[in-house]
């Protein structure tokens, strides 16, 4: 256990003094955040608090005004555009899936493989794509379909398969369960958790889904007032008295999610052998 | 990036052939050994993983595939490694059958046949699209309150008013080119004065309206296809239908009306500006006074040349709007389709305009407006 603890102390993503603004509109001001190795960090915040902008800053799509961002020990902002080595170590799932609409699902997954490892021959590349697609919970016949032939949930899974194409260390998920039915959302949560454990991923997860937060997140970071106002496990967050956090977790939806989660914990304590949920680290 | 992947096969008397992997087995190192692994021809009994460093799912897949193909066991695998091998093993769906590709002859012949069928069906589809426009127009004529004035006027502006600059410049230059080339050629016969006839008849009958139609097809026909196509993609057109708004009435009719009416005005404007260009050049190079040019034009250009141009203009406008809106409505599926349909709208529009122009030329000559 101590080894695991030790590993968690490693910082996978470190953001210090980040400031982002669009003209007059300041989105982040002196924002700092650490994401540890092997954890699932949930990022929450009201609409317009810059969750997506934060993610785009980390993956280098948005150049901040000031600040320092390190992913796996490499600075994002110092490197030039062509410095791509770090890009092969993360995978990103965009909100709508952002699949290339003119390619099949398998070809979508093969794009990053062909881009970074051209020496892998096309047969193996296709094999890799097929097992990644299956790993993401899609049926085998989805591989040769085009994105327009897939449902919303399947698109997200296909996007996840593409994000996993390079066996990344860090996975960015932007509202993965938004727009999914509750069963689909729960399955996606399970899938995320399972993949995270099997592949040892660090997951940066933007979500509005309270069930997701309760079920799979190790820690939750709350974005408000241009900063990360609180970060910790949900019980730790509940102990703070910030009005937005209280309203968020103690509103009718927050309570319902907490109750259902507590029920599940109880059920699993009775039958510990079936326990699948990892619960919280205290 | 870590130790390169490698493997060796040794024949052991007790177990049989043992394949021993070494180094890191991950996506960065696996490329070179993949083909070498294929050439292992003896049947393996064991895969020994004790010398393997870092392993990821790609490495796990290679190991799993080897074990699957040889039906052998994997030994000395680390805990994380065996988790990965299990995970990819569960995700092994077997090789999917790729769709069978027919040979070249079949494909060419089949493609030609499909092309012919497509040409006829799309001709019919376009005819029925035109029918639906006429029906919507009649419905609006019966109930004028349903006419969408705001959208129509907006398209008047987009198709007509904002095209004035570019159409004017283009026409002026066309007029100059005709006058200059005409003057050079006719000078050989000492007949420079007939340049006025050339400029007047050519711009009024043909070039004024034709060049305007090409410009409108490029500016507005493409815009119609792209706008409607994008609205199809984002399901705006479907949303309209469910609310009970007819997309033909709301989207197509204002555009068709704008293209038809604005083509008349733009063609007239283009004719005038082109003649002004010709007059300017003749004044500058042949010292022909502007007033003389105007008088000569009235003497040598029959009025039916003007009618020919003005009759063609609305027809060309209709053709352009029709192909733009039709192609836009055909968009299905993905963003690439919008581009393809926009191109098709412009190409089809200009092509049909030129074909019709040839018909008109023969027709008007036949009826004595030559």
UniProtKB/TrEMBL annotation, chain A:
Domain of life: Bacteria
Region (Disordered): 260-282
Record-level Gene Ontology MF annotations: ATP binding
Biased composition (Polar residues): 271-282
Record's keyword terms, sorted: ATP-binding, Nucleotide-binding, Transport
Classification via Gene3D superfamilies: P-loop containing nucleotide triphosphate hydrolases
Keyword Ribosomal protein listed: no
Entries under SUPFAM superfamilies matching the protein: P-loop containing nucleoside triphosphate hydrolases (SSF52540)
Keyword Isomerase found: no
Residues in ABC transporter domain copies: 13-250
InterPro entries, per the entry: AAA+_ATPase, ABC_transporter-like_ATP-bd, ABC_transporter-like_CS, P-loop_NTPase
PANTHER family: PROTEIN TRIGALACTOSYLDIACYLGLYCEROL 3, CHLOROPLASTIC
Protein name listed in UniProt: ABC transporter ATP-binding protein
Species of provenance: Blastomonas aquatica
UniProtKB/TrEMBL annotation, chain B:
Entry keyword set: Cell inner membrane, Cell membrane, Membrane, Transmembrane, Transmembrane helix
Membrane-related topology note: Multi-pass membrane protein
Pfam families, sorted: MlaE (PF02405)
Residue intervals passing through the bilayer: 116-138, 158-179, 256-286, 306-326, 338-364
The keyword Cell inner membrane belongs to this UniProt entry's keyword annotation: yes
SUPFAM superfamilies reported in the protein's UniProt record: SpoIIaa-like
Location in or out of the cell: Cell inner membrane
Coiled coil ranges: none
Domain STAS: 18-69
Keyword Glycoprotein: no
Family per similarity comment: Belongs to the MlaE permease family.
Function field: Could be part of an ABC transporter complex.
Name of the protein described by the UniProt record: Sulfate transporter
């Amino acid at each position: 256990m101590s080894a695991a603890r030790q590993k968690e102390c490693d910082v996978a993503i470190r953001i210090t003094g980040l400031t982002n603004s669009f003209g007059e509109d300041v989105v982040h001001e002196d924002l700092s955040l650490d994401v540890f190795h092997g954890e699932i960090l949930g990022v929450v915040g009201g609409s317009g608090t810059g969750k997506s902008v934060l993610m785009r800053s980390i993956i280098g799509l948005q150049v901040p005004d000031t600040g320092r961002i390190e992913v796996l020990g490499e600075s994002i902002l110092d490197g030039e555009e062509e410095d791509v080595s770090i890009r092969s170590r993360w995978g990103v799932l965009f909100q709508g899936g952002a699949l290339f609409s003119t390619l099949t699902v398998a070809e979508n997954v093969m794009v990053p493989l062909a881009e970074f490892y051209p020496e892998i021959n096309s047969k193996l590349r296709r094999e890799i794509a097929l097992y990644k697609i299956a790993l993401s919970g899609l049926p085998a016949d989805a591989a040769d379909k085009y994105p327009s032939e897939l449902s919303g949930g399947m698109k997200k899974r296909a996007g996840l398969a593409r994000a996993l194409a390079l066996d990344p260390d860090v996975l960015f998920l932007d509202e993965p369960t938004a727009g999914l039915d509750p069963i689909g959302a729960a399955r996606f949560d399970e899938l995320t958790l399972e993949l995270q454990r099997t592949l040892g991923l660090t997951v940066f997860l933007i979500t509005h889904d309270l069930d997701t937060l309760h079920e799979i997140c190790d820690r939750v970071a709350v974005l408000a007032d241009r900063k990360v106002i609180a970060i910790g496990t949900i019980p730790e967050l509940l102990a703070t008295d910030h009005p937005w956090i209280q309203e968020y977790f103690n509103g009718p939806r927050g309570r319902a999610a907490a109750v259902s989660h507590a029920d599940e914990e109880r059920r699993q304590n009775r039958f510990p052998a079936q326990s699948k949920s990892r619960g919280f680290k205290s | 990036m870590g130790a390169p992947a490698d493997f060796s096969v040794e024949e052991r008397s007790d177990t049989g052939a043992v394949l021993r992997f070494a180094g890191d087995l991950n996506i960065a190192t696996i490329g070179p050994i993949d083909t070498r692994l294929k050439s292992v021809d003896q049947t393996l009994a064991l895969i020994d993983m004790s010398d393997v460093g870092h392993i990821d799912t790609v490495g796990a897949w290679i190991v799993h595939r080897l074990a699957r193909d040889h039906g052998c066991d994997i030994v000395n695998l680390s805990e994380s490694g065996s988790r990965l091998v299990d995970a990819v093993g569960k995700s092994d769906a077997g090789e999917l059958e790729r769709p069978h590709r027919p040979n070249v002859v079949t494909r060419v012949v089949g493609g030609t046949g499909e092309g012919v069928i497509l040409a006829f069906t799309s001709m019919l589809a376009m005819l029925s699209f035109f029918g639906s426009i006429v029906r919507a127009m009649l419905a609006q004529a019966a109930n004028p309150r349903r006419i969408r004035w705001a959208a129509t006027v907006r398209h008047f502006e987009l198709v007509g008013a904002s095209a004035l600059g570019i159409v004017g410049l283009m026409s002026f230059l066309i007029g100059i080119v005709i006058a200059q080339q005409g003057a050079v050629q006719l000078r050989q016969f000492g007949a420079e004065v007939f340049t006025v006839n050339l400029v007047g008849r050519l711009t009024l009958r043909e070039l004024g309206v034709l060049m305007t139609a090409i410009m409108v097809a490029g500016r507005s026909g493409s815009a119609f296809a792209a706008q409607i196509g994008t609205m199809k993609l984002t399901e705006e057109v479907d949303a309209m239908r469910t609310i009970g708004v007819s997309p033909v009435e709301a989207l197509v009719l204002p555009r068709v009306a704008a293209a038809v009416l604005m083509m008349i005005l733009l063609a007239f404007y283009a004719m005038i500006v082109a003649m002004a260009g010709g007059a300017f050049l003749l004044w500058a190079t042949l010292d022909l006074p502007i007033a003389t040019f105007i008088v000569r034009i009235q003497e040598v250009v029959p009025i039916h040349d003007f009618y020919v141009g003005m009759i063609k203009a609305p027809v060309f406008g209709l053709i352009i709007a029709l192909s733009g809106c039709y192609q836009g409505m055909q968009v299905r599926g993905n963003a690439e389709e919008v581009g393809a349909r926009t191109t098709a709208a412009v190409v089809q529009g200009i092509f049909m305009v030129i074909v019709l122009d040839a018909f008109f030329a023969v027709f008007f000559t036949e009826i004595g407006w030559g």
